Amino acid sequence: MDKVFDIEIKKLRDNIDHIDRQILDLISQRLTQVQDVVALKKAHNIPVYHPAREEDLISKLRSQATASGIDADFMEEMYRVILRNSRMEQTVEMKQQGIKAGATVLIVGGEGQMGRFFSDLFRASGYIVRTLSEKNWNDVASLCKDADLVLLSVPIHVTLETIQRIAPHISPTTILADLTSIKTAPVDAMLKYFTGPVIGLHPLFGPSCATLDKQIIAVTPGRDNGKCRWLVEQLSLWGAIMVNAEPEEHDDIMDIVQALRHFATFCFGQFLCRKKVNLARSLEFSSPIYRLELGMVGRLFAQDSSLYSEIIFATPSRRKLLKQYVAAMNEQIELVESNDKTLFMERFSEVTQWFGDFGNQAMRESDFIINKLIERF
Amino acid sequence: MDKVFDIEIKKLRDNIDHIDRQILDLISQRLTQVQDVVALKKAHNIPVYHPAREEDLISKLRSQATASGIDADFMEEMYRVILRNSRMEQTVEMKQQGIKAGATVLIVGGEGQMGRFFSDLFRASGYIVRTLSEKNWNDVASLCKDADLVLLSVPIHVTLETIQRIAPHISPTTILADLTSIKTAPVDAMLKYFTGPVIGLHPLFGPSCATLDKQIIAVTPGRDNGKCRWLVEQLSLWGAIMVNAEPEEHDDIMDIVQALRHFATFCFGQFLCRKKVNLARSLEFSSPIYRLELGMVGRLFAQDSSLYSEIIFATPSRRKLLKQYVAAMNEQIELVESNDKTLFMERFSEVTQWFGDFGNQAMRESDFIINKLIERF
């Protein structure tokens, strides 16, 4: 490299640094304006997240970008990052707002991770939060007294007995709700042993989330929906997306979405371990897809084994499904043994047809994710 | 909502729109400066991607962000998007630059997707590109004549016979290279039937990529590395990351990274299809992780079945590995049948220990991806 090059590149880089400095100042100004919007909305009691406004803004920016010779997808991507950041800030602000602030919430299993997650949320929004565990079970009667909500956050295998034990202490004006990842048996038990309002909830996320923003909670109605409404609205206000289902439908879906998926991942990890695969070296040769898939496997094993055993072994119908799955794999291996590529391709295209449009959607979504991975790592 | 609110919110939103307009202008200015940097680098023949400069810039921006009360992670994320966009633009520019522009490249199977992908790249960088397929096989002698590189881009199952057929027509001063996803047998055959420089390549990505930017290509040396160097440098200059391995090591890794992973995904998709799972409904209840995992499955079935059958059935050692895998699953199902949670947890923690630090790394990486998914969808 020569002197002229050094001088010229320095000049250009200084220009870029100067531009970046101005962008940063503008981002800072933007955050201030967004905070003013939040304050105004709070004063008028208006929900903070406004999807339509976001999409309008994105559309406008896309056409402005195109007009200025900037790639519209790039501009959209950049603004999704900016908007998400302001939404997070707003959600942190809005967390404070309680639909029924001052009400009393008793969290059973409140010392577990999920229990603490919800304790913190309720407390931050002005609720009075009590917790119950084996340690203070002697006080169950006084802790249940005048509670507006009793929320069960206990492991699956003790859910039913906990419902039976606590129900007699709860007033029929209190809401009884649970957070178990299966819903048929818990909702049945709550309806059987308790006479007041009942609602089943299943948060589809772990307690390590920062906020409820866009997280999914399945809602299975039990009894007296009207009286449970404030709880559903509170969870929505915290940012959660509430999805309704009958308990049976919920459980059928979770047999696949949770039990089967986790079991398949468990088996894959076990096999890698048994074969002593050199992970670090295999990652050097990895397409982003494999890195991501291996990451999903690693993720499972970085978490609590008892949580996964609870999910996988939860019900006899689940265990039956897993057996069917392995039986189906045995059929596929016959195909490999006979080295029958034609049959493989036939079975493949059967599944392709069955997936239908989802296949293309999956390609688009995973392309997006792959680009994110390439960008980052 | 009242009038005062309407007026005030409009004012704040106008402010935000005005700020966004300025950000857009600055981004446009920034792109112009970056184009000047590219032009300058081209004039001085300097590689375009400068990782150290990027990391410096990110560090500086992070501390400036913190000083201005802006979340540093957010600022980093936003700039990763901006930098990736400029890198893409730069790579598009630099594509033009040929290490050995004017040289002749013969692509065998040049009408396949991967063949066309590489044809376009070589052509854009000033190479003379010829293609050979069954249609013009009669011209094989004249097409091979004076070629600097013969690059095989044919399906796995015809690779060996293609090597045997073409080798006698290639001059020993030409490089012979292949793009097959297995390496031992093709490299052996190239060394056996050809006496000139040999290099095995395996691009770890599909032909649907926009550029080679940060894509991985495995390199297995064959003969006369020095003479093959310009090819490796050309691929690097296009943005690819070149990873070296012996052919046998490469194939062992790909047994896992490709064959086993794809087979497991194939079986999962087959089972979903057989059970007629309601995909759309299950996605409504999905955590981002499941959406992503299902997306990976859908992605596989949206692609070419013959490509996957080629990969899965490629070698006897692969088929043996898949049998071992299903045998291991049969052992795991015994555990489910006996409903033995304790043993499950024991096996689980064995794998956790074996994964070691990778588990935490996987959590961090997949958390990042999950946030990206939540942001987008």
Automatic annotation (TrEMBL), chains A, B:
<feature type="domain" description="Chorismate mutase">
    <location>
        <begin position="3"/>
        <end position="94"/>
    </location>
</feature>
<dbReference type="InterPro" id="IPR046826">
    <property type="entry name" value="PDH_N"/>
</dbReference>
<dbReference type="GO" id="GO:0004106">
    <property type="term" value="F:chorismate mutase activity"/>
</dbReference>
<dbReference type="Pfam" id="PF02153">
    <property type="entry name" value="PDH_N"/>
</dbReference>
<dbReference type="InterPro" id="IPR036979">
    <property type="entry name" value="CM_dom_sf"/>
</dbReference>
<feature type="domain" description="Prephenate/arogenate dehydrogenase">
    <location>
        <begin position="103"/>
        <end position="366"/>
    </location>
</feature>
<dbReference type="GO" id="GO:0008977">
    <property type="term" value="F:prephenate dehydrogenase (NAD+) activity"/>
</dbReference>
<dbReference type="InterPro" id="IPR050812">
    <property type="entry name" value="Preph/Arog_dehydrog"/>
</dbReference>
<dbReference type="GO" id="GO:0070403">
    <property type="term" value="F:NAD+ binding"/>
</dbReference>
<dbReference type="GO" id="GO:0006571">
    <property type="term" value="P:tyrosine biosynthetic process"/>
</dbReference>
<dbReference type="InterPro" id="IPR002701">
    <property type="entry name" value="CM_II_prokaryot"/>
</dbReference>
<dbReference type="Pfam" id="PF20463">
    <property type="entry name" value="PDH_C"/>
</dbReference>
<dbReference type="InterPro" id="IPR046825">
    <property type="entry name" value="PDH_C"/>
</dbReference>
<dbReference type="GO" id="GO:0046417">
    <property type="term" value="P:chorismate metabolic process"/>
</dbReference>
<keyword id="KW-0560">Oxidoreductase</keyword>
<dbReference type="InterPro" id="IPR036291">
    <property type="entry name" value="NAD(P)-bd_dom_sf"/>
</dbReference>
<dbReference type="InterPro" id="IPR036263">
    <property type="entry name" value="Chorismate_II_sf"/>
</dbReference>
<protein>
    <recommendedName>
        <fullName>chorismate mutase</fullName>
        <ecNumber>5.4.99.5</ecNumber>
    </recommendedName>
</protein>
<dbReference type="Pfam" id="PF01817">
    <property type="entry name" value="CM_2"/>
</dbReference>
<dbReference type="GO" id="GO:0004665">
    <property type="term" value="F:prephenate dehydrogenase (NADP+) activity"/>
</dbReference>
<dbReference type="InterPro" id="IPR003099">
    <property type="entry name" value="Prephen_DH"/>
</dbReference>
<dbReference type="InterPro" id="IPR008927">
    <property type="entry name" value="6-PGluconate_DH-like_C_sf"/>
</dbReference>
